């Protein structure tokens, strides 16, 4: 019965939001030969007539799916014309330059972005990425507002997609797969994500059911293209969290071009708003460049390079966390001694050459090298008091007046890792009239040198607590203990491993028609073979094949709709982290996790308030086998590495985006998702990523009376994740959840110069293409959001108390943006 209601709700929303208008729009800026805006230009099409305003801006509505001629006339300039054929609800931006010589424009045909619609790809505007506020602003900050994408850690650039974890997402920059450091365990250690927003041209994202040409992961693909500049330009940004600068360079003969960016970030402003008082000295910096060289019309080369250095110095001082209920308020007070010093140095380079062998055949050869040197060293002693607080005394509401437990905890680590990953890949595309063949072959060699030394000693009221699995058990203070003293946790391993992989794909794409309905096929398959050497146990060569398919149809209806179904058999061969078990030992024969994935989708373009909108609905189901069970501590994932589980994920996503405010794009997202796993046939329980409900809003606006003052809102609500379990415990006995995640970030910006006002500015402002000064408020409503639980044991009652580790509170930031 519930399944029928679920299906009915899906079908109801699938066909909702119906609109009748069958028009398209053309808009833009009209300039003269000196690039100054021209007001009073008459723009006419059949019976429609508009006139450009004082800034040279015009917008006209025309019939769709037919050839239409536009006439541009002005009293002092020569007439010009344009013939277009646009799809329903398509917006075509045309910025004509009118001069004294008459010019006849040719016909323009626009594809209406059908490629992205039929493939289920979400495209994110790069200007939106730069404007929207967030504690960790950038591409990932925007992704977290999309349906199916979840995160409850504003300090991290990592994200979970439809029940998957952080390791199940593919990220490409200029068709090259990029990686993140291995040892990072908390969001505050992640200063910068790989992608530099200042260099980005296109951002495309798929949350599942993606094509065979993309790699072997289970959850999502983020495909980023860096800009190829056409002229000199420069940009910089400065705020309380750091700064960045970027420059575009182009040679005189236009054969060489380069875009280079430098970034620096300091999270002290955010970390100092947490419960724990610290001496925190981080430095996160990187430099990136994308160089292009056009050897000839048929042959181009490009180089993508990145050097990143992240230093993390952390010295906790004191912490107090209040928790419990109104009737029984409690608090944990911790006093620290010691420090943590981490460093992550990464070097990345990729060389790509593209050769157009014929008008229908394109070949690409891509080589890349990724090197990371990481160390994680800490010795931190935490002495704690756990007790009740007096809720009836407001002046002393945070003071512990009755101590339930007292103890100490010493954590030690000397973890070092050195990894070198090399790739070489050949890709090709062969075009025919209505079809296309894509193919590729790739070799990867991963060399890992890893030393893990971690131990933890727990003392309660003077008695050292042995591991729960160790016999005989320590039952002090009730029974004297005479056995050896052991660390509560002790992990020691040294791994020198080499992983060789060969992978490839072939994919056939076709566009056709059934009657008057347009259809698209994407049929393909991937394969991968790999072998792990250097482990104590001999590794076997493994091989998997992953067939995938997409089908989409655009009915010949008055309503602009596309229906699609996609899916297939997806495999995720283990990366190094997935090979390493809870004791730090590598199991070379871990199998590839396998998922049968099906996605049903509907994409509907319509008009509301005479403005363009899009409603996207997706229903998905994943059946997973050979699952590698894991636990999540902040952003660190630890695998069991035995493939002894099965799981599923199912859900429904909605997204409505459009011009809620004229001239600006905003959206609202909603998602329902459920994912469970069955380990050792014990039964199904929630996976660590089981985030049931998600609501997000990204909203852009401006003040009506002061249009140069912009307002940006980033709002996310997620239901609570499973709260984890104490070390050595059975997760089936700890199925509590964290509280719901609620966060709103808002930004206000005074825009002094932008594309619509640049030519009207005088004085020093005329040197800028863009200039703005903004105020950002992170966590506007000062919500307490928890990322994990710290488990504290009361030695007398034997109870385990889950103490929430809260994230950042309300923080103010000032930001300056400029572009030359």
Description:
The chain has six helices and 45 strands. The strands form eight sheets. It has a 22-stranded antiparallel β-barrel.
Summarize the structure.
With 820 residues, the chain is mainly beta. The chain contains six helices and 45 strands. The longest helix is centred in the first third of the chain and has 13 residues, at 2-14.
Average pLDDT for all residues: 86
- The outline comes out as globular
Low-confidence stretches: 1-21, 102-112
So how many helices? 6
Q: How far do the termini sit from each other?
A: 61 Å
- The secondary structure category is mainly beta
The gyration radius over C-alpha positions equals: 29 Å
The percentage of residues in β strands lies in over 45%
- How many β strands by DSSP? 45
Biggest beta sheet attributes: 22 strands, antiparallel, barrel
Q: Determine the fraction of residues in helical runs and give it as a percent range.
A: under 10%
């Amino acid at each position: 019965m519930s399944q029928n209601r679920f299906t009915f709700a899906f079908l109801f929303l699938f066909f909702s939001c119906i609109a009748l208008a069958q028009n398209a729009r053309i808009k833009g800026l009209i300039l003269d030969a000196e690039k100054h805006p021209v007001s009073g230009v008459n723009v006419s099409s059949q019976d429609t007539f508009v006139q450009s305003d004082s800034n040279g801006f015009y917008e006209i509505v025309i019939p769709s799916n037919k050839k239409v001629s536009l006439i541009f006339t002005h009293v002092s300039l020569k007439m010009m014309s344009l013939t277009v054929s646009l799809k329903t609800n398509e917006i075509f931006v045309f910025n004509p330059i009118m001069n004294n010589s008459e010019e006849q424009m040719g016909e323009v045909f626009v594809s209406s972005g059908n490629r992205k619609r039929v493939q289920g790809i979400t495209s994110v505007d790069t200007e939106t990425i730069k404007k929207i506020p967030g504690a960790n602003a950038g591409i990932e900050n925007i992704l977290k507002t999309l349906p199916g994408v979840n995160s409850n850690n504003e300090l991290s650039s990592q994200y979970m997609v439809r029940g998957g974890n952080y390791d199940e997402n593919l990220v490409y920059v200029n068709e090259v797969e990029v990686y993140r450091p291995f040892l990072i365990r908390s969001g505050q250690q992640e200063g910068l994500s790989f992608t530099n927003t200042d260099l980005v041209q296109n951002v495309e994202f798929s949350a599942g059911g993606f094509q065979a040409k993309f790699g072997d992961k289970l959850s999502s693909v983020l495909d980023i293209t860096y800009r190829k500049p056409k002229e000199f330009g420069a940009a910089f940004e400065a705020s309380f969290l750091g700064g960045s600068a970027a420059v575009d360079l182009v040679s005189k003969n236009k054969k060489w071009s380069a875009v280079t960016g430098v970034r620096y970030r300091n999270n002290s402003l955010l970390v100092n708003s947490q419960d724990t008082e610290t001496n925190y000295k981080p430095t996160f910096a990187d430099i990136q460049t994308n160089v292009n060289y056009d050897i000839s019309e048929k042959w181009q080369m490009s180089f993508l390079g990145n050097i990143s250095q992240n230093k993390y110095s952390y010295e906790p001082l004191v912490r107090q966390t209040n928790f419990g209920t109104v009737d029984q308020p409690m608090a944990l007070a911790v006093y620290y001694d010691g420090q943590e010093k981490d460093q992550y140095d990464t070097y990345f380079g990729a060389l790509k050459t593209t050769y157009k062998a014929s008008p229908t055949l394109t070949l690409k050869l891509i080589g890349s090298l990724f090197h990371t040197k990481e160390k994680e060293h800490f010795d931190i002693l935490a002495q704690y008091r756990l007790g009740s607080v007096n809720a009836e005394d407001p002046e002393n509401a945070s003071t512990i007046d009755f101590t339930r437990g007292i103890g100490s905890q010493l954590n030690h680590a000397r973890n070092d890792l050195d990894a070198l990953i090399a790739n070489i890949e050949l890709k090709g595309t062969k075009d025919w009239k209505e079809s296309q063949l894509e193919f590729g072959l790739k070799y990867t060699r991963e060399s890992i040198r890893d030393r893990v030394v971690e131990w933890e000693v727990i003392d309660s009221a003077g008695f050292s607590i042995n591991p729960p699995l160790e016999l005989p058990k320590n039952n002090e203070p009730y029974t004297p203990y005479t056995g050896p003293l052991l660390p509560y946790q002790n992990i020691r391993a040294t791994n020198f491993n080499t992983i060789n992989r060969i992978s490839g794909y072939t994919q056939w794409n076709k566009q056709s028609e059934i009657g008057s309905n347009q259809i698209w096929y994407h049929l393909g398959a991937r394969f991968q073979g790999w072998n792990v050497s250097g482990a104590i146990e001999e590794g076997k060569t493994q091989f998997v094949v992953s067939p995938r398919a997409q089908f989409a149809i655009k009915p010949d209806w008055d309503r602009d709709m596309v229906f699609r179904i996609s899916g297939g058999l997806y495999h995720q061969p283990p990366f190094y982290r997935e090979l390493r078990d809870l004791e730090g030992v590598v199991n070379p024969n871990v199998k590839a996790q396998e998922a049968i994935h099906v996605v049903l989708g509907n994409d509907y373009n319509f008009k509301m308030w005479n403005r363009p909108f899009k409603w996207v609905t997706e229903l998905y189901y994943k059946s997973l086998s050979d699952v590698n069970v894991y636990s999540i501590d902040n952003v660190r994932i630890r695998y069991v590495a035995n493939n002894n589980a099965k799981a599923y994920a199912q859900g429904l996503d909605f997204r409505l985006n459009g011009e809620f405010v004229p001239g600006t794009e905003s959206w609202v997202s909603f998602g329902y998702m459920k994912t469970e796993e069955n380990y050792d046939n014990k039964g199904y329980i929630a996976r660590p990523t089981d985030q049931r409900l998600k609501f997000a809003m990204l909203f852009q606006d401006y003040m009506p009376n002061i249009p140069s003052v912009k307002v940006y809102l980033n709002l996310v609500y997620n239901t609570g994740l499973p709260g984890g379990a104490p070390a050595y415990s059975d997760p089936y006995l700890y199925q509590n959840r964290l509280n719901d995640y609620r966060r709103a970030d808002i930004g206000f910006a005074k825009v002094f110069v932008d594309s619509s006002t640049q030519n009207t500015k005088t004085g020093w402002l005329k040197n800028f293409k863009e200039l703005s000064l903004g105020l950002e408020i992170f966590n506007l409503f000062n919500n307490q959001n928890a990322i994990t639980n710290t488990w504290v044991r009361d030695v007398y009652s034997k109870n385990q108390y889950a103490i929430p580790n809260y994230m950042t509170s309300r923080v103010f930031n000032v930001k300056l943006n400029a572009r030359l």
